[in-house]
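> agent: user asked for a holo structure of the chain below bound to adenosine-5'-triphosphate. Plan: (1) validate sequence alphabet, (2) canonicalize SMILES, (3) run complex prediction with ligand conditioning, (4) return tokens. Step 1... ok. Step 2... ok. Step 3 dispatched.
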Amino acid sequence: MKTRFIYNPKSGHNAKSPHLLERARLFIAQHKLDADVVLTERTRHATELARRAVDDGCELIVAIGGDGTMNEVAAALIDSPAALGLIPCGSGNGLGRHLGIPGPGKGAFRNLLNGDIRTIDTGLANGIPFFNAMGVGFDAEISHRFNRLTHRGLPAYVHTTFGTLFRFRPQKYTIRSGDMSITTSAFIISVANSDQYGNDCFIAPGASVDDGRLNITVMKSIHLFNALPIALRLFTKRIDGSASVQRLLGPSFSIERPVPGLLHTDGETHETAALIEVTVRPRSLRIMVPHREAAAA
Ligand SMILES: Nc1ncnc2c1ncn2[C@@H]1O[C@H](COP(=O)(O)OP(=O)(O)OP(=O)(O)O)[C@@H](O)[C@H]1O
């Protein structure tokens, strides 16, 4: 299978140590693969590299990075015959965790040799693709601040979150889907394809990446007294029981706010219009996941 590895030297652990670059090259040599490794040089470059890989006839295109790199590579593979491979090494790895794709020290490379191909849904927010989750409000603000940090990881994420939490003000939104319309003040509106943001923080427990539907989670208010209980619920898949949370499921939604602002797609932020149209493109991305028997073992 003609394969190309796309390595982001700036993501997660790669920024601290380039050992995965060497590991990928060694893996190719050891298994005599028809494969090569290319490095990203700037934001969005991974999409260009992945497009070129598809044009070159690659059947497997492997992102070595976090959810941002995964998103950029996957964006070029929508509706293409090429499959995405993941060596998840970012700070959250939401899609990889949801799909049971192990980290590089735990079988991610082996998975590329003996994995199964699954075809998953793609979400689009005003035309911008996402594969794990998109969101507005506090969610997008945190992504924006987090992306500007030089030191990432769970401790930095927790620090950024709590540093911003009590200063952030909820905004008014109208969510529409078919005949349904809800106007509410919300702290976060998250639209998830998978069940988690990353780091086993479950924003949409029970979500499926191939059911042709997206999961909206509206968090209405977060304040001094409910922040910790909500955090505990997020990490124990019990967010549904919170009085501050409302969930919706469907193939398309619009989310309207009074003014334009930020949204994030898989953790990368974008300025966008006040009206956000969110749609799903069912089963449009092929991705290599652990072989069913190996995953069950
Ligand atoms: N050579 C480069 N120089 C600077 N930025 C880059 C380069 N290559 C890719 N990027 C950008 O690096 C960003 C971070 O990548 P990625 O999300 O994979 O890592 P992460 O943020 O550490 O992981 P996670 O999303 O899991 O937290 C992406 O926005 C990507 O566009």
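> agent: step 4 complete. Summary for user: The mean pLDDT is 93. Residues 8-12, 40-45, 65-69, 72, 90-93, 152, 198, 267-268 surround adenosine-5'-triphosphate (CB under 6 Å).
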